[in-house]
Protein backbone atom coordinates (compact mmCIF):
# COMPACT_ATOMS: atom_id res chain seq x y z
CA UNK A 1 0.00 0.00 0.00
CA UNK A 2 1.42 3.38 -0.97
CA UNK A 3 2.02 6.22 1.45
CA UNK A 4 -0.57 8.23 -0.46
CA UNK A 5 -3.27 5.61 0.16
CA UNK A 6 -2.30 5.30 3.83
CA UNK A 7 -2.72 9.03 4.28
CA UNK A 8 -6.14 8.94 2.66
CA UNK A 9 -7.41 6.46 5.28
CA UNK A 10 -6.42 8.54 8.28
CA UNK A 11 -9.40 9.72 10.33
CA UNK A 12 -10.45 13.26 9.52
CA UNK A 13 -10.06 15.91 12.18
CA UNK A 14 -13.29 16.85 13.97
CA UNK A 15 -12.92 20.41 12.77
CA UNK A 16 -12.92 19.12 9.20
CA UNK A 17 -16.12 17.13 9.70
CA UNK A 18 -18.26 20.03 10.91
CA UNK A 19 -21.10 20.97 8.57
CA UNK A 20 -20.38 23.95 6.32
CA UNK A 21 -23.38 25.78 7.84
CA UNK A 22 -21.75 25.76 11.28
CA UNK A 23 -18.54 27.22 9.99
CA UNK A 24 -20.56 29.80 8.07
CA UNK A 25 -22.51 30.82 11.18
CA UNK A 26 -19.32 31.14 13.18
CA UNK A 27 -17.86 33.39 10.51
CA UNK A 28 -21.06 35.44 10.40
CA UNK A 29 -20.78 36.04 14.14
CA UNK A 30 -17.17 37.11 14.18
CA UNK A 31 -16.08 39.78 16.63
CA UNK A 32 -16.47 42.47 13.98
CA UNK A 33 -19.90 41.24 12.88
CA UNK A 34 -21.03 41.02 16.49
CA UNK A 35 -20.01 44.63 17.20
CA UNK A 36 -21.67 45.84 13.99
CA UNK A 37 -24.93 44.04 14.75
CA UNK A 38 -25.09 45.44 18.29
CA UNK A 39 -24.17 48.95 17.13
CA UNK A 40 -26.76 48.86 14.34
CA UNK A 41 -29.47 47.65 16.71
CA UNK A 42 -28.78 50.47 19.18
CA UNK A 43 -28.79 53.07 16.39
CA UNK A 44 -32.14 51.87 15.06
CA UNK A 45 -33.67 51.90 18.53
CA UNK A 46 -32.56 55.51 19.04
CA UNK A 47 -33.99 56.51 15.65
CA UNK A 48 -37.25 54.75 16.51
CA UNK A 49 -37.51 56.64 19.81
CA UNK A 50 -36.96 59.94 18.03
CA UNK A 51 -39.60 59.08 15.42
CA UNK A 52 -42.10 58.19 18.15
CA UNK A 53 -41.38 61.44 19.95
CA UNK A 54 -42.36 63.51 16.89
CA UNK A 55 -45.28 61.23 16.00
CA UNK A 56 -43.86 59.98 12.68
CA UNK A 57 -45.57 56.57 12.55
CA UNK A 58 -44.48 55.91 8.96
CA UNK A 59 -40.85 56.21 10.00
CA UNK A 60 -41.48 54.04 13.07
CA UNK A 61 -42.89 51.31 10.83
CA UNK A 62 -39.94 51.62 8.47
CA UNK A 63 -37.44 51.30 11.31
CA UNK A 64 -39.34 48.33 12.76
CA UNK A 65 -38.99 46.63 9.39
CA UNK A 66 -35.24 47.34 9.38
CA UNK A 67 -34.88 45.88 12.86
CA UNK A 68 -36.64 42.71 11.74
CA UNK A 69 -34.49 42.51 8.63
CA UNK A 70 -31.46 42.54 10.92
CA UNK A 71 -32.87 39.63 12.91
CA UNK A 72 -34.73 41.58 15.56
CA UNK A 73 -34.10 41.33 19.29
CA UNK A 74 -33.18 37.66 18.96
CA UNK A 75 -30.14 38.44 16.82
CA UNK A 76 -29.11 41.24 19.17
CA UNK A 77 -29.28 38.87 22.13
CA UNK A 78 -27.31 36.20 20.28
CA UNK A 79 -24.61 38.74 19.49
CA UNK A 80 -24.62 39.86 23.13
CA UNK A 81 -24.26 36.28 24.38
CA UNK A 82 -21.34 35.69 22.04
CA UNK A 83 -19.81 38.99 23.10
CA UNK A 84 -19.92 37.80 26.73
CA UNK A 85 -18.57 34.33 25.98
CA UNK A 86 -15.18 33.22 27.27
CA UNK A 87 -13.76 33.65 23.78
CA UNK A 88 -14.77 37.33 23.77
CA UNK A 89 -13.79 38.42 27.26
CA UNK A 90 -16.03 36.31 29.45
CA UNK A 91 -19.03 36.54 31.71
CA UNK A 92 -19.29 39.97 33.35
CA UNK A 93 -20.86 38.51 36.49
CA UNK A 94 -17.49 36.91 37.32
CA UNK A 95 -16.32 40.38 38.27
CA UNK A 96 -19.37 40.80 40.50
CA UNK A 97 -18.75 37.51 42.29
CA UNK A 98 -15.09 38.40 42.79
CA UNK A 99 -16.08 41.73 44.36
CA UNK A 100 -18.76 40.45 46.74
CA UNK A 101 -17.14 37.12 47.71
CA UNK A 102 -15.70 38.45 51.01
CA UNK A 103 -19.13 39.76 52.01
CA UNK A 104 -21.04 36.56 51.22
CA UNK A 105 -18.46 34.06 52.52
CA UNK A 106 -20.39 33.56 55.78
CA UNK A 107 -23.56 32.65 53.90
CA UNK A 108 -22.04 29.31 52.89
CA UNK A 109 -22.53 28.05 56.43
CA UNK A 110 -26.11 29.31 56.75
CA UNK A 111 -29.40 28.81 54.96
CA UNK A 112 -29.62 32.49 54.07
CA UNK A 113 -29.13 33.72 50.53
CA UNK A 114 -28.78 37.09 48.87
CA UNK A 115 -31.72 37.93 46.67
CA UNK A 116 -30.44 39.11 43.28
CA UNK A 117 -32.40 40.63 40.40
CA UNK A 118 -30.56 40.20 37.11
CA UNK A 119 -32.06 42.53 34.52
CA UNK A 120 -31.38 41.62 30.89
CA UNK A 121 -30.38 38.06 31.77
CA UNK A 122 -29.08 36.00 28.86
CA UNK A 123 -28.07 32.79 30.63
CA UNK A 124 -28.94 30.66 33.65
CA UNK A 125 -25.38 29.36 33.81
CA UNK A 126 -23.30 32.46 34.41
CA UNK A 127 -21.16 32.91 37.53
CA UNK A 128 -23.94 34.75 39.32
CA UNK A 129 -26.50 32.01 38.71
CA UNK A 130 -24.16 29.19 39.68
CA UNK A 131 -23.19 30.72 43.02
CA UNK A 132 -24.92 28.76 45.77
CA UNK A 133 -25.21 31.75 48.11
CA UNK A 134 -27.32 33.76 45.66
CA UNK A 135 -31.03 33.44 44.92
CA UNK A 136 -31.22 34.91 41.42
CA UNK A 137 -34.35 36.20 39.71
CA UNK A 138 -33.67 36.63 35.99
CA UNK A 139 -35.72 38.82 33.66
CA UNK A 140 -35.34 39.90 30.05
CA UNK A 141 -37.42 41.51 27.31
CA UNK A 142 -37.14 38.35 25.25
CA UNK A 143 -36.40 35.25 27.31
CA UNK A 144 -33.92 32.93 25.59
CA UNK A 145 -34.29 29.89 27.87
CA UNK A 146 -36.29 28.45 30.80
CA UNK A 147 -35.42 30.13 34.06
CA UNK A 148 -35.50 33.64 32.56
CA UNK A 149 -38.79 35.49 32.98
CA UNK A 150 -39.96 37.49 29.98
CA UNK A 151 -40.47 40.90 31.54
CA UNK A 152 -39.69 44.58 31.10
CA UNK A 153 -37.99 45.88 34.25
CA UNK A 154 -39.74 49.22 33.82
CA UNK A 155 -43.11 47.42 33.95
CA UNK A 156 -42.29 44.96 36.73
CA UNK A 157 -44.86 45.29 39.55
CA UNK A 158 -43.52 47.37 42.42
CA UNK A 159 -42.58 45.42 45.57
CA UNK A 160 -45.15 45.53 48.36
CA UNK A 161 -42.71 44.86 51.20
CA UNK A 162 -38.99 44.52 51.94
CA UNK A 163 -39.34 40.76 51.50
CA UNK A 164 -40.19 41.35 47.84
CA UNK A 165 -37.11 43.51 47.31
CA UNK A 166 -33.55 42.51 46.46
CA UNK A 167 -30.16 42.81 48.08
CA UNK A 168 -28.51 43.28 44.71
CA UNK A 169 -29.57 44.40 41.23
CA UNK A 170 -27.44 43.66 38.18
CA UNK A 171 -27.62 45.99 35.16
CA UNK A 172 -24.96 44.46 32.95
CA UNK A 173 -25.02 46.05 29.49
CA UNK A 174 -28.65 47.00 30.06
CA UNK A 175 -28.65 50.76 30.61
CA UNK A 176 -26.98 51.34 27.25
CA UNK A 177 -29.78 49.35 25.58
CA UNK A 178 -32.36 51.93 26.69
CA UNK A 179 -32.62 54.26 23.67
CA UNK A 180 -33.83 57.36 25.51
CA UNK A 181 -31.58 59.37 27.91
CA UNK A 182 -34.60 60.14 30.09
CA UNK A 183 -35.47 56.44 30.20
CA UNK A 184 -31.95 55.66 31.42
CA UNK A 185 -32.36 58.08 34.29
CA UNK A 186 -35.73 56.58 35.17
CA UNK A 187 -34.24 53.08 35.16
CA UNK A 188 -31.54 54.07 37.64
CA UNK A 189 -34.13 55.70 39.92
CA UNK A 190 -36.38 52.65 39.67
CA UNK A 191 -33.57 50.43 40.93
CA UNK A 192 -33.87 52.10 44.33
CA UNK A 193 -37.48 50.97 44.59
CA UNK A 194 -36.47 47.33 44.17
CA UNK A 195 -33.54 47.38 46.62
CA UNK A 196 -33.96 46.38 50.24
CA UNK A 197 -34.04 49.35 52.55
CA UNK A 198 -32.05 47.68 55.35
CA UNK A 199 -28.68 45.90 54.98
CA UNK A 200 -28.92 42.91 57.38
CA UNK A 201 -29.42 39.49 55.78
CA UNK A 202 -29.21 37.45 58.99
CA UNK A 203 -27.56 37.62 62.38
CA UNK A 204 -24.18 36.42 61.14
CA UNK A 205 -23.56 38.60 58.10
CA UNK A 206 -24.60 41.91 56.56
CA UNK A 207 -24.73 43.05 52.97
CA UNK A 208 -25.40 46.61 51.95
CA UNK A 209 -28.00 46.79 49.14
CA UNK A 210 -26.06 47.32 45.92
CA UNK A 211 -26.23 47.96 42.19
CA UNK A 212 -23.85 46.24 39.77
CA UNK A 213 -23.50 48.38 36.68
CA UNK A 214 -21.69 47.43 33.47
CA UNK A 215 -21.47 49.79 30.48
CA UNK A 216 -19.51 49.83 27.23
CA UNK A 217 -16.43 51.94 27.96
CA UNK A 218 -17.16 54.49 25.19
CA UNK A 219 -20.47 55.39 26.90
CA UNK A 220 -18.45 57.06 29.65
CA UNK A 221 -14.95 57.54 28.26
CA UNK A 222 -15.89 58.99 24.88
CA UNK A 223 -19.26 60.69 25.27
CA UNK A 224 -20.01 64.36 24.81
CA UNK A 225 -22.64 64.25 27.53
CA UNK A 226 -21.38 61.76 30.13
CA UNK A 227 -18.14 61.48 32.07
CA UNK A 228 -17.11 59.36 35.05
CA UNK A 229 -17.62 62.39 37.25
CA UNK A 230 -21.13 63.06 35.92
CA UNK A 231 -22.09 59.40 36.28
CA UNK A 232 -20.95 59.48 39.90
CA UNK A 233 -22.87 62.71 40.51
CA UNK A 234 -26.03 61.14 39.10
CA UNK A 235 -25.85 57.96 41.17
CA UNK A 236 -24.79 59.83 44.31
CA UNK A 237 -27.86 62.04 44.00
CA UNK A 238 -30.05 58.93 43.90
CA UNK A 239 -28.46 57.57 47.09
CA UNK A 240 -25.56 55.40 45.87
CA UNK A 241 -21.86 55.47 46.66
CA UNK A 242 -19.19 53.91 44.45
CA UNK A 243 -17.28 51.07 46.15
CA UNK A 244 -15.70 49.17 43.25
CA UNK A 245 -14.59 50.34 39.82
CA UNK A 246 -12.83 48.54 36.98
CA UNK A 247 -12.28 49.55 33.37
CA UNK A 248 -11.02 47.59 30.40
CA UNK A 249 -10.63 48.69 26.80
CA UNK A 250 -14.24 47.62 26.16
CA UNK A 251 -16.20 47.76 29.41
CA UNK A 252 -16.65 49.67 32.65
CA UNK A 253 -17.66 47.64 35.73
CA UNK A 254 -18.93 49.38 38.86
CA UNK A 255 -20.46 48.36 42.18
CA UNK A 256 -22.60 50.95 43.93
CA UNK A 257 -23.83 50.58 47.51
CA UNK A 258 -27.17 52.15 48.38
CA UNK A 259 -26.95 54.36 51.43
CA UNK A 260 -30.39 55.90 51.19
CA UNK A 261 -28.92 59.39 51.49
CA UNK A 262 -30.53 60.99 48.47
CA UNK A 263 -29.76 64.46 47.20
CA UNK A 264 -32.41 64.87 44.47
CA UNK A 265 -31.40 67.11 41.60
CA UNK A 266 -31.86 67.36 37.86
CA UNK A 267 -29.24 66.39 35.31
CA UNK A 268 -29.77 67.71 31.81
CA UNK A 269 -28.13 66.82 28.54
CA UNK A 270 -25.21 69.20 28.34
CA UNK A 271 -21.86 69.03 26.60
CA UNK A 272 -19.18 68.00 29.09
CA UNK A 273 -16.57 66.59 26.75
CA UNK A 274 -16.64 68.33 23.34
CA UNK A 275 -15.17 66.79 20.23
CA UNK A 276 -16.23 65.68 16.76
CA UNK A 277 -15.34 62.04 17.43
CA UNK A 278 -17.40 61.78 20.62
CA UNK A 279 -20.62 59.77 20.84
CA UNK A 280 -23.97 61.07 22.10
CA UNK A 281 -24.62 58.69 25.01
CA UNK A 282 -26.35 60.59 27.81
CA UNK A 283 -28.34 60.11 31.00
CA UNK A 284 -31.01 62.65 31.91
CA UNK A 285 -32.46 62.71 35.42
CA UNK A 286 -35.61 64.64 36.14
CA UNK A 287 -36.87 65.55 39.60
CA UNK A 288 -39.83 63.53 40.78
CA UNK A 289 -43.05 65.55 40.87
CA UNK A 290 -44.55 65.34 44.36
UniProtKB/TrEMBL annotation:
GO molecular function: methyltransferase activity
Keyword Methyltransferase appears in the UniProt entry: yes
Biased composition range(s): Basic residues: 1-10
Signal peptide start-end: none
Region listing for Disordered, in residue ranges: 1-20
EC number: 2.1.1.-
Residues the record lists as binding S-adenosyl-L-methionine: 120, 140
Subcellular localization, as worded in the UniProt entry: Nucleus, Nucleolus
Keywords recorded for this protein, A-Z: Methyltransferase, Nucleus, S-adenosyl-L-methionine, Transferase
GO BP annotation list: methylation
Biological role: S-adenosyl-L-methionine-dependent methyltransferase that specifically methylates the N(1) position of an adenine present in helix 65 in 25S rRNA.
UniProt xrefs under PANTHER family: 25S RRNA (ADENINE(2142)-N(1))-METHYLTRANSFERASE, S-ADENOSYLMETHIONINE SENSOR UPSTREAM OF MTORC1-RELATED
UniProt similarity note: Belongs to the BMT2 family.
Protein name (Swiss-Prot/TrEMBL): 25S rRNA adenine-N(1) methyltransferase
Taxonomic classification: Eukaryota, Fungi, Dikarya, Ascomycota, Pezizomycotina
Amino acid sequence: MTAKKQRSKRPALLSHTRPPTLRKNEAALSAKATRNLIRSHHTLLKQRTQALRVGNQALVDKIDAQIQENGGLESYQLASKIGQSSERGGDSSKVLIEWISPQIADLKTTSSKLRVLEVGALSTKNACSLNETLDVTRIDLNSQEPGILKQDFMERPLPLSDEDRFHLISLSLVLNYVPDPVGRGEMLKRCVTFLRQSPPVDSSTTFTPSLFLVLPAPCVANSRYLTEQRLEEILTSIGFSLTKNKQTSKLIYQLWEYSGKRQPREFRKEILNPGRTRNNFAIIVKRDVK
